[in-house]
Specification:
This protein is an alpha+beta fold and 94 residues long. The protein has two domains: 52 residues; 28 residues, no CATH class. The protein is built from three helices and three strands. The chain has a three-stranded antiparallel β-sheet, covered by helices on one side. A hairpin with a 2-residue loop joins strand 1 and strand 2. Helix 1 packs parallel to helix 2. The radius of gyration is 22 Å and the shape is elongated.
């Protein structure tokens, strides 16, 4: 089997829902919003392509979103924060 060109491998993995990045001396295969734990690093393009095909067969489980609003302050976020502080004070009184 011949070694595919980077663009061909990139396009194939993109259709499978993966991201292939080329850095000096290495190739990195990962899920679009994957962490460093799910990333596969190799120096061989053929190895990266075969591993990407394997990764596409069994994607990692989705993480649950954090409890409560995240990001900028909102009224609902302020209410959650207030309720947590009240619950903490009640716990310390007893």
């Amino acid at each position: 089997m011949t070694i595919p060109a980077f663009q061909t491998a990139f396009d194939e993995l993109k259709t499978l829902g993966l991201v292939l990045r080329r850095e000096p001396g290495e190739y990195r295969v990962n899920f679009p919003h994957g962490t460093e734990a799910t990333e596969y690093i190799t120096d061989d393009l053929q190895d990266a392509l075969s591993r990407g095909r394997e990764m596409a067969e069994c994607p990692p489980p989705r993480e649950l979103p954090p409890l409560g609003p995240m990001g900028r302050r909102t009224r609902r976020g302020d209410m959650y924060k207030h309720n947590r502080s009240v619950a903490a004070r009640r716990g310390h009184r007893r």
